[in-house]
C-alpha cells in the first residue's frame, strides 16, 4: 500500500474562499470517480489560523507504486495539476 501526501500553499492573493481554490477543490473531489486506481482519497482546506500551516491537503492511497504512476499519468490528474500549478506552491511525498 502506498500513501501519497500533497501539501499546498496558496500563492499570494489566493484564499480558500477564492473562486480558483474552490474550483480546484471541486476538481480534486471528482478524481476518485475518474481514476479507478485510487483506493482512498481525502482532501480539504486547512481551518487553523496559523500562517506557517499548509493551506490545503491531499492524502490518497494506492495498492502499488504502479497504480500510483498510472494515477500520475492519467489525463484527469494532469488537468488538476495544471489548475493547482496556477494557484499553489506544493510539497509532497509518498509513504510505503
UniProtKB/TrEMBL annotation:
InterPro entries in UniProt: Dabb, Dimeric_a/b-barrel
Domain Stress-response A/B barrel: 2-96
Annotated SMART domains: Dabb
Name of this protein: Dabb family protein
Organism: Uliginosibacterium silvisoli
Amino acid at each position: 500500500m502506498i500513501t501519497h501526501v500533497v501539501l499546498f500553499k496558496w500563492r499570494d492573493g489566493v484564499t480558500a474562499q477564492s473562486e480558483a481554490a474552490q474550483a480546484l477543490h471541486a476538481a480534486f473531489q471528482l478524481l476518485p470517480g475518474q481514476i479507478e486506481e485510487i483506493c482512498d482519497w481525502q482532501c480539504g482546506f486547512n481551518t487553523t489560523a496559523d500562517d506557517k500551516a499548509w493551506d490545503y491537503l491531499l492524502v490518497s492511497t494506492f495498492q502499488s507504486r504502479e497504480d500510483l504512476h498510472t494515477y500520475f499519468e492519467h489525463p484527469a490528474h494532469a488537468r488538476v495539476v495544471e489548475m493547482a500549478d496556477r494557484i499553489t506552491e506544493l510539497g509532497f511525498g509518498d509513504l510505503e
